Amino acid sequence: MTASVATHPRRHHPTGTICSPSISTVGDLSSALFPAGRSGLQSSTASPVEGLHMASDFNHTPVLLDEVVELFTPVPPGVLLDATLGGAGHASAILAACPQLHLVGIDRDGTARDAAKERLEPFGDRAVVVAATFAELGRVIDAGLEGAGPWPKGAPPKVAGVLFDLGVSSPQLDVAERGFSYLHDAPLDMRMDPSTGPTASEVLDGLDLASLERLLRENGEDRLARRIAQAILGARPITSTGQLADVVAGAVPAPARRRGHPAKRVFQALRIAVNGEIDQLDAALPAALDRLTPHGRCVVIAYHSGEDKLVKTLFADRVTGGCTCPPRLPCGCGATPTYRRLFAGAHKSSAGELDTNRRAESARLRAVERLDLEELP
Q1: Spans of the chain, pLDDT less than 50
Q2: 63 domain-assigned
Q3: Do 74 and 205 sit in the same domain of this protein?
Q4: What pLDDT score does 332 carry?
Q5: Same domain, 39 and 159
Q6: Given this model, what pLDDT does residue 349 score?
Q7: Is the pTM value of this prediction over 0.70?
Q8: Which is it for the CA torsion 86, 90, 93, 94, positive or negative?
Q9: Pairwise CA distance, residues 34 & 202, whole Å
């Protein structure tokens, strides 16, 4: 089977037995609003038994949790859009700490949605869960604001915050049959939504040498991209994670293998391509920023340099208003900033957090707040 994947160019720029009605019915609302053939939004409902079984397997430790909650505590009343809901670790903590907020949680992974609905059940009408990709975030927001789609009951018609926790979650990595991890031998799948799109194996089958080398180079495997790409093409068809890990290991010189598993970045690059993660973020982040209310905040946790660079660049554009003047000189081009940084640079996990969650090591958190231009002098 031939699969086509567009590589992304470098750019400048508490557990209950039944879910509450608001959470369990959101799939029907979203399906009616966005027929699956048009937008890809689908029902997120599941039988109680099936949902609880899945949820019990979805135990994810949210990264930088205290800082994320603190960042959203001052925002005005409104809706928080969690664009990458997962098991609702961040979302449930924010709702508990921020009574002024309601939640719309978006995820394409049915297992994650079942876990999230269970975890959010105590919050009743303050939370809804939508089956969607985060690239569809703008459409979900607009439908809610227009009263034509899923929106929490009694929520103020304002988007007070948007959260992106990018990448793959621990439960997805740890469930071998999902095919995300080089540590378990399983079918080479890697799809966030296993019901749609080509698998990682099919993607590899459809790439020529130049395309595969570019995919690896742009998504983390710089130095040995061509050598690894040649080895993969020579071993096709590759149908399992163990097979791919062995091929990569065989293509990497011994000194490089001593710096960690040689397949880590290859698996990351392939996962990003299979799920269109960079392109999804490129569509979702501007949509989120454009729809925030004044004093609303956007918080992004990225784990990959390409994602973090995109976030950094777009945030800088909004913070400077697109100013083109030389650095450290007064602006003379008339640019109007629309956002402010909440802190300089990117925040990382503390040593204490890393002691309990090594997967937080690559996390980079950035945050901005929308300005109220009427309050400016």
Answers
A1: 1-56
A2: yes
A3: no
A4: 84
A5: yes
A6: 96
A7: yes
A8: negative
A9: 28
Q: Is the peptide bond before 237 cis (omega within 30 degrees of 0)?
A: yes
Six-digit token string for 155: 């929520």
CATH of the domain at 257: 1.10.150.170
Q: Can you give the length of the chain in residues?
A: 377
**7 within domain boundaries:** no
DSSP state of 159: E
**Residue 293 and residue 155 share a domain:** yes
Burial profile 260-281: b = 16 or more Cβ within 10 angstroms, e = fewer = eebbbbbbbbbbbbbbbbbebb
In this structure, which amino acid lies at residue 297?
Answer: R
The parent domain of residue 148 ranges over 21-170+278-375
Q: Residue 327: what pLDDT?
A: 81
Q: Same structural domain for residues 158 and 59?
A: yes
| 3 state SS of 120 | helix
Indicate whether 150 belongs to any domain: yes
Strand segments (E) across 108-145? 127-131
The residue behind tokens 């449930």 is 92
Task: Give the per-residue pLDDT at 47.
Answer: 25
Q: How far apart are CA 157 and CA 281, in angstroms?
A: 24
9 belongs to a structural domain: no
Phi (first) and psi of residue 268, to 5 degrees: -60, -45
